[in-house]
Each structure stands twice: as structure tokens, then as C-alpha cells.
Automatic annotation (TrEMBL):
PANTHER family: LOW MOLECULAR WEIGHT PROTEIN TYROSINE PHOSPHATASE, LOW MOLECULAR WEIGHT PROTEIN-TYROSINE-PHOSPHATASE ETP-RELATED. GO terms for molecular function: protein tyrosine phosphatase activity. The active site is at residues 13, 19. This is Low molecular weight phosphatase family protein. Residues 7-191 form the Phosphotyrosine protein phosphatase I domain. The keyword Transcription does not apply. Keywords: Hydrolase, Protein phosphatase. Belongs to the low molecular weight phosphotyrosine protein phosphatase family. It comes from Microbacterium esteraromaticum.
């Protein structure tokens, strides 16, 4: 990474109209005071489509600016996006597996978002800061070291509990469930990134 390189986070789901754009919008909002790039893409994206109406409603309730949420357009996941990312947050184990088939060398940077959160909860702030310090003053390197610490904590395979349910074409109750699964996970991602960049 070049000195001062900006950390990049990529969120990945299937259509890029529900889970991953909501995760992207939440992270952008929560990390807006930091120099961090956040993007999203879909493994089978409905290219050019916006977020679903229900996802827009969830975004509004989470305090996401309506114009920002409505500006989203789905895009297809391609290898260069993955190569550039310091952290790839998959919405499910299946998405993680697809990403790793495309870029096998990114094992330490690719993780289901809920698994990342579960692992991060068990790691102290001090350990995250210490790991990030190995990246000196390069923001992307600091994030990469913190992410490697978290993903290096894996001792068991991710389970179905680490997946964010797919709400597409489902009831509002399922959309609510997806949001309830995603929000606490995003809070842990924010925590790790903030600690890494302190």
C-alpha cells in the first residue's frame, strides 16, 4: 500500500439491492468522519437497480440520508473490487465462498459480517490497537492488521448463525429480521475500524 492509502471496505450479497447496500450505507454513515471508502456489489447483481422499497425504509429508520440511499445502483462483483479491498464483508457463507473462489489469496480479508462481529466481540480494544500499530501510520495497513487479528481468531467454521437472512421478495418481518441481524454486526465493524485508525 502507498503511504496514506485509504482503507477500503466492500460489502457483498446476491442482488446488491438489499443487504449489502444497507451495510454499505450504514458503514459510510458511521465512518463518515474517517477517511474510509465503503462500497458494495452483488454476486448476481440486478445491475442498475436501486435498493428495494423495504430496504429504503430500513435505511431511513437507521438515519441514512434518503437521497444517498436512493442514489444507490446495484453493480456486479468483479475481481478488481476484491483485490483493492482491505476487508470484504460477505452477507453469508455462500457469498464468502464465491469471493474466495475469485480471489483465493484474500482468506484473511474475507469474512461473513456476522462472523466478523462475533469474533471481534471477544477481542479487547487494546489488542486491536496493538495489531493496528504494526501498520505504522498507513491507514490501510493499520486496518489490514486489525482485520487479520480478528479473522485469525477463527477456530471453528462459520455457521448458519453467521449469515444475514435474505429478505428479497419476502415479508416485512423478514426485512426486519435482516436488519436486526445486520445492525449489531455493523457496530462491531465500526468499532474495529475506529480502533485501528485512532
Amino acid at each position: 500500500m502507498a503511504a496514506g492509502a485509504v482503507p477500503r471496505i466492500l460489502t457483498v450479497c446476491t442482488g446488491n439491492i438489499c443487504r449489502s447496500p444497507l451495510a454499505e450505507a450504514l458503514l459510510r454513515q458511521r465512518l463518515s468522519d474517517l477517511r474510509v471508502e465503503v462500497h458494495s456489489a452483488g454476486t448476481h447483481a440486478l445491475v442498475g437497480h436501486g435498493m428495494t422499497t423495504q430496504t429504503l425504509e430500513l435505511a431511513a429508520r437507521a438515519g441514512i440520508d434518503g437521497a444517498v440511499a436512493q442514489a444507490h445502483r446495484a453493480r456486479y462483483l468483479v475481481e478488481p473490487m476484491l483485490i483493492e479491498a482491505d476487508l470484504v464483508l460477505a452477507m453469508t457463507r455462500e457469498h464468502r465462498d464465491i469471493v474466495l473462489q475469485m480471489t483465493p489469496g484474500k482468506l484473511r480479508q474475507v469474512v461473513p459480517v456476522r462472523e466478523f462481529a462475533r469474533l471481534a466481540e471477544a477481542v479487547s480494544d487494546g489488542r486491536i490497537r496493538a495489531a493496528a500499530d504494526r501498520g505504522d501510520h498507513v491507514p490501510a495497513d493499520r486496518v489490514a492488521h486489525a482485520v487479520a487479528l480478528i479473522t485469525g481468531m477463527r477456530v471453528t467454521a462459520a455457521t448458519a448463525d453467521d449469515d444475514v437472512i435474505d429478505p428479497y421478495r419476502q415479508s416485512s418481518k423478514i426485512y426486519e429480521q435482516a436488519s436486526a441481524e445486520l445492525l449489531p454486526a455493523i457496530a462491531q465493524v465500526e468499532r474495529v475500524i475506529r480502533l485501528a485508525l485512532e
